[in-house]
Design brief:
Layout (H helix, E strand, L loop, with lengths): L7 H15 L4 E11 L18 E8 L5 E9 L12 H7 L8 E3 L10 E2 L9 H27 L11 H21 L11 E3 L4 E3 L10 E4 L10 H14 L8 H4 L2
Helix pairs in contact: 3-5
């Protein structure tokens, strides 16, 4: 159910989806990590105590262009931040060893390190106009994973309160919920509608929040840091290349309205 694509054609289907639906070529997934609240296991001390002041385990996930999970890693305890959830996952090793097609990458938020296989927004201030355009275009593609998490929690009510089962059972509950999410997304016309997820009004420059954002969610914000923020020259050059592309031949007509 969460098997990373094994062939170039499978990867290319996802890349074409990001290109056509979200106007970002070269993307093979959107990645994020979220906390899932749990009841602290007996005698665990502060192992699961996160920076938001509650106990949790972390769900790290990659989502395709259609809100489906293609990879999940469950179970890192909530205090993990500087330890590097991504770096300690099986995915990190695969990415470092060329898992993605040449030139391809995932999109992520500012919590992740900038890598040649992982693009994140510019963070320094002030940003140039072109850098703001890049950040908007990346956010547009990355919002897929944020909405997938939101739909998951709004549909599966077990996430409304801290999960009180043994941690090993909690892992299975999260895994099952993600699998059911994928199945329902692919087989149901009502599981996820346009009103459920964020929608852009490109005429007014307004982002209309999905209905899931109006509900109290038990998924906390993203993990605050994942490993080092040091980036290679190759990664910086890739981001700069896309920054130029989005303000030239890759521009979309509405993008300047979205950054004003």
């Amino acid at each position: 159910m969460f098997q990373i694509p094994a062939s170039h054609e499978e990867w290319n289907v996802i890349e074409r989806g990001f290109h056509s639906r979200w106007n970002f070529p070269g993307v093979y997934g959107a990645i994020d990590g979220k906390h899932v609240m749990i009841r602290a296991p007996p005698d665990c001390g502060s192992d699961f105590f996160n920076y938001k002041g509650s106990n949790s385990i972390i769900l790290l996930a990659v989502v395709d262009d259609d809100y489906c999970f293609t990879y999940i890693n469950i179970g890192a305890n909530g205090r993990c931040s500087d330890g590097g959830v991504l770096q300690n996952s099986s995915l990190s090793h695969e990415l470092e060893n060329g898992m993605l097609p040449t030139g391809g990458f995932f999109v992520a938020d500012a919590a992740f390190p900038l890598k040649h296989y992982l693009l994140k927004p510019y963070q320094h201030t002030p940003l140039t106009h072109d850098q703001k355009i890049f950040n908007y275009r990346l956010s547009r593609a990355r919002r897929i994973v944020e909405n997938a998490f939101g739909i998951l929690v709004s549909r599966f009510r077990i996430f409304e309160k801290p999960i009180a089962t043994d941690v090993s059972v909690t892992d299975k509950i999260i895994h099952t919920a993600c699998a059911l999410h994928n199945w329902l997304r692919k087989t149901s016309n009502t599981y996820l509608t346009r009103e459920n997820v964020d929608f852009e009004n490109v005429d007014t420059g307004e982002i209309i929040p999905g209905s899931w954002r109006q509900e109290t969610l038990a998924l906390l914000p993203s993990i605050n840091r994942i490993g080092s923020n040091h980036s290679s020259r190759q990664a910086r050059e890739l981001r700069e290349m896309y920054t130029k592309y989005f303000t030239n031949e890759g521009a979309v007509s509405w993008q300047s309205r979205m950054i004003n």
